[in-house]
Write a structure and sequence with these properties.
Layout (H helix, E strand, L loop, with lengths): L12 H13 L5 H8 L5 H16 L1 H11 L6 H15 L5 H11 L2 H16 L1 H8 L4 H4 L4 H11 L1 H11 L5 E5 L12 E3 L6 E4 L5 H5 L3 E3 L5 H7 L6 E4 L6 H9 L5 E6 L5 H11 L4 E5 L14 E7 L14 H4 L2 H19 L2 E11 L8 H10 L3 E9 L1 H4 L4 E8 L2
Parallel strand pairs: 5-6, 5-8, 6-7, 8-9
Antiparallel strand pairs: 1-3, 1-4, 2-3, 9-11, 10-11
Helix pairs in contact: 1-2, 1-3, 1-5, 3-5, 4-5, 5-6, 5-7, 6-7, 10-11, 17-18
Length: 416
């Protein structure tokens, strides 16, 4: 007798989205990780649908919870709650076909909940115009599904009008951008992509980036916000440069491209397991004189590196407040007290890495945060303690203005 084999058919996108979000709600796992697990074996269209539902739910979660409570004040068990949330997202955010959303969402419900889920979603359809119109009247935090403490900080720093525009940007799906590599020129224009005005070598990708171009090092997927710290660093051919928090290597690759590979680059990361992929990425980018090493910059600069670099790029761990559109979990994980803790960590890393800059050399501090406490205040505190450094220029990129991720970068010079 031939042994029987059992094949596991992937879940439908809606069933997989339900499982993703119920697991995400328990904490401890990023949404992107859950999507990757659940989408294994799916065809591209099902995978795209799963991803669009999960990410749209998380970008709009506070508003969707508000609507769920308007439809039924009584609590629902987890399965029913997430089925209704997902259905509301499909109907009111993604504008999927009404009949398919309701019928297939109800079909996923246990028999005891089908009547409740069906009634709530059909009620939502009847009240769709009401809910959409009411959204404009809600508080900014509720309207754009952002914690109130974060909204208050942004209003303090940017004003209400810019904060509203920033919040509106954050609930939209993020654009995909790519940078071409001058060391690996393409014979044909990048297909399915539009060049960014006034940003040479950068493209907004409409279709998937060609895998062959990625593997050949001709294209690097990155956000245009990453170019600001490279512009301030101004890497020159023949220099010895340290990228102190380098993995996965996007900014190191940009340094290699800016110098056409004629640079002595040391790229470090605090996690050993990240180094092989970092090395691979930089070799693919065209880096020939590249050293990849593990170092935790909360500890002192190794003696052999003291004062030995023409330029140091320090892209520190941060709150990700500038990339909430792209990192959908961040707004729900972050707590206000965490900002102060991160600022302390950033100050420590800046203190240690600055020792690697030679007299007359350059130091660029950068984050993907737009919070002043992690940005300008860290730099000002450092300069107050280190008279040998002076600030030359800093730049804050706000997402809704740049139409890209948010970022901060500051260029400091060490006096000779």
């Amino acid at each position: 007798m031939t042994p029987s084999t059992t094949s596991h058919k992937p879940l439908s996108p809606r069933a997989a989205a339900l499982r993703c979000l119920m697991r995400w709600d328990k904490g401890g796992v990023f949404a992107e990780t859950l999507i990757a697990r659940e989408s294994a074996g799916m065809n591209p269209s099902d995978r795209a649908m799963l991803q669009s539902i999960v990410l749209a739910v998380l970008r709009n979660l506070r508003w969707l919870n508000h609507l769920r409570k308007k439809l039924r004040t009584a609590a629902l068990e987890d399965t029913g709650h997430w089925l209704v949330i997902n259905g509301l997202c499909e109907l009111l955010v993604l504008n999927h076909a009404d009949y398919a959303v309701v019928s297939q969402t109800v079909a996923l419900a246990p028999a005891r909940l089908r009547g409740v889920v069906n009634g709530m979603l059909r009620n939502a359809l009847r009240r769709k115009d009401e809910f959409i119109g009411e959204r404009k009247l809600l508080s900014l935090g509720m309207r754009y599904s952002t914690p109130d403490w974060l909204v208050r900080r942004w209003i303090r720093d940017f004003g209400k009008e810019d904060t509203a525009a920033l919040l509106a940007w954050n609930v939209q799906p993020p654009p995909v951008y790519a940078r071409t590599n001058p060391l690996r020129p393409m014979k044909e224009p990048l297909e399915g992509a539009d060049p960014l005005p006034d940003v040479p070598g950068w493209y907004r990708v409409r279709a998937g980036v060609p895998l062959a171009a990625l593997q050949a090092g001709q294209v690097y997927v990155a956000d245009p916000s990453t170019r600001h710290c490279i512009r301030l660093l101004a890497p020159q051919q023949g220099e010895r440069i340290l990228d102190a928090c380098a993995a996965p290597g996007g900014k190191s690759a940009a340094i290699i491209a800016a110098t056409m590979g004629h640079v002595q680059l040391v790229a470090t990361d605090s996690e050993q397991h990240r180094l092989p992929s970092l090395q691979e990425n930089l070799q693919r980018a065209g880096g020939e004189d590249v050293t990849v090493a593990m170092h935790d910059w909360t500890h002192p600069c190794p003696p052999e590196w003291l004062g030995s670099f023409d330029a140091v790029l320090l892209d520190v761990p941060c709150s990700n407040s500038g990339v909430l559109q792209r990192r959908v979990d961040a707004r729900w994980r972050l707590q206000e007290k965490e900002i102060a803790r991160l600022a302390g960590l950033q100050s420590l890393i800046l203190e240690q890495a600055a020792a690697a800059v030679r007299p007359g050399g350059r130091l660029v501090y950068s984050t993907c945060s737009i919070d002043r406490q992690e940005d300008r205040e860290v730099v000002e505190s450092f300069l107050a303690e280190h008279s040998e450094f002076s600030l030359v220029e800093d730049y804050l990129a706000l997402p809704h203005i740049e139409q890209a991720d948010g970022a901060y970068a500051a260029l400091m010079i060490r006096r000779g």
